[in-house]
TrEMBL record:
The keyword Secreted does not apply. This is Anti-CBASS protein Acb1. The keyword Isomerase does not apply. Residues 436-472 are annotated as: Disordered. Belongs to the anti-CBASS protein Acb1 family. Residues 490-637 form the Anti-CBASS protein Acb1-like C-terminal domain.
């Protein structure tokens, strides 16, 4: 380490006398990019701000690390191998070296390091170490000059300087280089400088230097915040004799003693015009505007380095309505770009050796993603989970995805997002048929509510794709197949009543012995015997973001009979009226003189029940997304109440 200490002393001494990037200083090589090891280390270690500018991007790239996409056992092996090799910390170290001029991983295995290293030659534990070296410890040699070669401008071997020992040769397959951005062509750099690329430290040095100089200038200014100027009559005459000098020193000491002890200035006021006495002036420096000037210099540094001012300076956002979210969002985009374009290629060069050293079964099938750089807050996670569940609920209400497939997808989603820790292990203990809400013994037979209940299902879901309902599953499959073909045909469109339980409770309280199941309660939007292209119907722009239409409590409502024996709740809803009209204009038909939004309660009204005397259900009616189905003219025969 003696050479580093000596170099640092010399470099720091040089830096204190000369600006290493100034042409006037005569250090043209620094401007040209030949930033020596001594200057780089001296600059990095002597400036806390420069260290932050280099270290922050390096730390953020390795902060959250990576998520392996493999089975649980293989992931455990890989993460254990990464921990054994200290790969995460060493990646950060190599990224810091990239910022100061360049660095590399050296893959250490048993045997001769001068020989080529192939992934197939690595067995479990075969990667002995991954060591990090700077560009000044390893020298690329004998560059390929053949333009037709895929290794053009790449070294044929590296040489590690061992100090007093003989230089050691290393094959390029064992070296993973962390290099800077490519240097523009048509420059006068040598092969080594061109190979290692641009240096981040060189890019930001001047801006950091300006920030450090401004800070140092202000600190010196603080020392002079209060100036005491003492005017002494006949000062030169007093200094002409030893006694005068002694009296002056005693007088100054007395004034200083009063300043430090009593916070008061003691001076001789004089006795008249011929004896003016001492004159003492107290000057105060005005610091207004200086903090803003210092911030402007640091903001320039933030712009040059690409690091948000708030992160670089460790300060909260300032200004009206300032949150800093935009700056940080841009910063994480920048970090992600560096991860993908600079760090990932280096790690992917290492991974084939790492995976085989970890002893995984199928290394070629394993891949990884960067872990999210920003972790959502608990509130954000809760809101995201709520929105996802509402979207899934809309899929269920729409009946457009078979429930078995939907159950598998939802369980995978919950497990991958980590919403419910332990869910995967708990589900593994449940038979697959129960896990996905289906029974393999179900042959699609009786869908009577009592039969469904006997099989462990929910009678309210009869005919609606409920648990254990083979007919419902077939209906969903038929609907999906039907909608994939836009050939015009008779069309039925409905919206399920999502809060049907409220309406059923009202009906039972008002004397209805039976009602339609909750899953069958709906409002018809279109009953078209005329063939119509369903794709021309479009979407209802009046529905909310969940695809629902809400009829608020109250308003015109009536309980009446329709047709022969249907008892319905009629209500006013202009949104449904206009949607029905839109569909008619798009080619649909309607069998009745007018469209009347209603929900059918029952086809079996009790004898003696005076419907005209009933006070209609007055609560909110919440209807789910539109369901498009082929028109079933035999629907009455399938109606069953409960």
């Amino acid at each position: 380490m003696a050479w580093i200490t000596d170099s640092l002393r010399g470099a720091i001494d040089l830096a204190s006398r000369l600006n290493p990037f100034s042409r006037a200083g005569g250090v043209e090589t620094a401007i040209a990019g030949h930033f020596t090891h001594q200057l780089a280390i001296a600059a990095y270690m002597s400036s806390g701000m420069l260290r932050k500018v280099i270290a922050i991007p390096a730390a953020d790239r390795a902060q959250k690390w990576r998520d392996w996409q493999a089975d649980k056992d293989d992931i455990t092996k890989i993460e254990a191998e990464e921990k054994r090799l200290g790969l995460r910390a060493k990646t950060k170290e190599a990224e810091v070296l990239r910022g100061t001029g360049g660095g590399a991983f050296i893959l250490v295995t048993a045997g001769d390091h001068d020989s080529p290293l192939t992934p197939d030659s690595i067995g479990p534990g075969g990667l002995v170490a991954v060591n990090v070296v700077s560009r000044w410890e390893i020298t690329p040699k004998d560059f390929e000059k053949d333009l037709a070669s895929p290794n053009y401008r790449q070294p044929t071997y590296f040489e590690v300087n061992g100090g007093e020992k003989t230089a050691q040769r290393i094959h390029p397959s064992r070296v993973v280089c962390f290099r800077g951005d490519p240097i523009p062509s048509a420059t006068s750099f040598d092969e080594i400088e061109t190979f290692w690329g641009d240096c981040r430290l060189l890019q930001v040095f001047t801006a950091v230097q300006n920030s450090d100089h401004t800070q140092a200038w202000f600190v010196e200014l603080v020392k002079k915040a209060k100036l005491l100027r003492i005017g002494i009559p006949d000062l030169l005459d007093m200094l002409s004799s030893e006694e005068g000098k002694r009296n002056l020193n005693e007088r100054i000491a007395l004034i200083a003693s009063g300043e430090s002890t009593l916070n008061a200035t003691v001076y001789r006021s004089g006795t008249g015009q011929d004896d003016p006495g001492e004159k003492i002036d107290d000057y105060q420096i005005n610091f207004s505007g200086i903090p803003a000037f210092m911030d402007a210099v640091d903001q320039r540094l933030a712009a040059v380095s690409g690091i948000p001012f708030t992160k670089l300076m460790g300060r909260s956002p300032a200004g009206m309505n300032a949150t800093g979210e935009s700056d940080m969002s841009n910063w994480w985009d920048t970090v992600g770009d560096g991860q993908e374009n600079e760090t990932r290629p280096c790690l992917e060069q290492l991974d084939p050796f790492l995976l085989r050293s970890a002893g995984v079964s199928k290394p070629d099938d394993i891949w990884w993603l960067w872990a999210p750089l920003r972790k959502p807050t608990e509130k954000e996670e809760a809101e995201t989970f709520k929105l996802l569940m509402e979207a899934i609920g809309a899929l269920i209400d729409g009946g457009m995805v078979p429930r078995e497939a939907l159950a598998q997808a939802v369980q995978n989603l919950i497990e991958e997002r980590g919403y419910m820790p332990g869910l995967a292990d708990a589900l593994k203990k449940i038979p697959e048929a129960e896990r996905y809400g289906l029974s393999p013994e179900d042959d699609g037979g009786d869908d009577d509510p009592s039969a469904i209940q006997a099989r462990g299902g929910d009678p309210d879901l009869a005919g609606g794709g409920g648990s254990g309902s083979g007919a419902a599953r077939r209906a969903v499959t038929d609907a999906v197949s039907w909608l994939s073909d836009a050939t015009p045909r008779p069309l039925y469109v409905q919206r399920k009543l999502l809060n049907a339980a409220d309406l059923i409770a009202w009906a039972k309280e008002n004397g209805f012995a039976t009602t339609l199941p909750a899953s069958d309660m709906h409002v018809t939007v279109l009953y078209s015997r005329s063939p119509v292209d369903p794709m021309k119907m479009g979407r209802d722009w009046r529905e909310d973001e969940k695809g629902q239409i809400i009829v608020r409590p109250g308003g015109p409502r009536v309980i009446e009979k329709l047709g022969e024996n249907a008892v319905v709740l009629r209500f006013a809803c202009h949104d449904l009226d206009w949607r029905h009209k839109d569909m008619i204009e798009a080619g649909g038909s309607h069998d009745w003189p007018e469209y009347m939004p209603h929900v059918t309660l029952s086809y079996e009204a009790p004898d003696g029940l005076d419907i005209d005397m009933l006070k209609p259900f007055n609560g909110a009616l919440r209807f789910g997304p539109e369901i498009f189905e082929p028109l079933d003219l035999d629907w009455k025969r399938k109606v069953k109440e409960q």
